[in-house]
Design a protein that fits this description.
This protein has 166 residues and is of the alpha+beta class. The protein has helices at residues 2-17, 81-100, 116-133, 142-165, and strands spanning 22-25, 31-35, 40-46, 52-59, 71-76.
C-alpha cells in the first residue's frame, strides 16, 4: 500500500517540479525523481512514522552519478502535493546553493560535517600526512625502535652463544 502510494506521489510531484524527469524505484523501496536538465535529484522514502516520508535532495554530478544528499526533511504523506512540492523546492534550493559554492577544504576547516566514521578517517589521514611532512615514516615511532633493538639483541645473543658453544 505504501509503495503504491509513494509511487503515485512521486509521479505527481515530478510533474509539478519538472517537465523533464525520470522516476524510478530504489532498491530500498523508495522513489527517486531525477531532473537531468537541472542536475538535481529528489528521493522519497518511507520515514519512521506511518504517514511520513523522508524527502532528500542532492545534485547530479558529471557523468550522471549522484552526489550524496545535501538536505532532507520529513513530510506527512497526507500533506498533499503542494506542501510536498514546496518542501522539495526548498531542499533543491539548498542543494543548488551548496553546488554553487566551492567545496571547502574540510581538513583545513577542522573536519566539519560528516559522520563520526568519516571524521575519524579524516583525522587519521591528517595525522599520517603530518608525520610524513615531519620526516617520520609510518613505522619509525619509539615503540618500533624498541622492538627493532630487541630483535637485533636476540640475534646477536644467538650468534654469540653459537660461536662460544659450537
Amino acid at each position: 500500500m505504501v509503495g503504491a502510494q509513494l509511487r503515485d506521489t512521486a509521479q505527481e510531484l515530478a510533474a509539478v517540479l519538472w517537465r523533464e524527469h525520470t522516476v524510478y524505484r530504489e532498491r530500498s523501496g523508495g522513489m527517486v525523481i531525477r531532473g537531468e536538465h537541472v542536475r538535481r535529484w529528489i528521493s522519497l522514502a518511507p520515514a519512521g512514522g506511518r504517514d511520513e516520508i523522508l524527502v532528500r535532495a542532492g545534485r547530479i554530478l558529471d557523468g550522471g552519478t549522484t552526489a550524496p544528499a545535501r538536505s532532507e526533511a520529513v513530510v506527512p504523506l497526507s500533506a498533499g502535493t503542494g506542501v510536498l512540492a514546496a518542501t522539495c523546492r526548498r531542499l533543491l534550493a539548498d542543494a543548488a546553493a551548496d553546488g554553487a559554492r566551492p567545496a571547502p577544504d574540510r581538513e583545513a576547516a577542522g573536519g566539519s560535517g560528516g559522520s563520526r566514521k568519516s571524521r575519524k578517517a579524516r583525522k587519521a589521514r591528517k595525522a599520517r600526512k603530518a608525520a610524513r611532512r615531519n620526516g617520520r615514516g609510518r613505522h619509525t615511532g619509539f615503540s618500533s625502535w624498541v622492538i627493532l633493538v630487541c630483535v637485533v639483541g636476540v640475534i646477536a645473543l644467538f650468534a654469540y652463544s653459537s660461536a662460544m658453544h659450537g
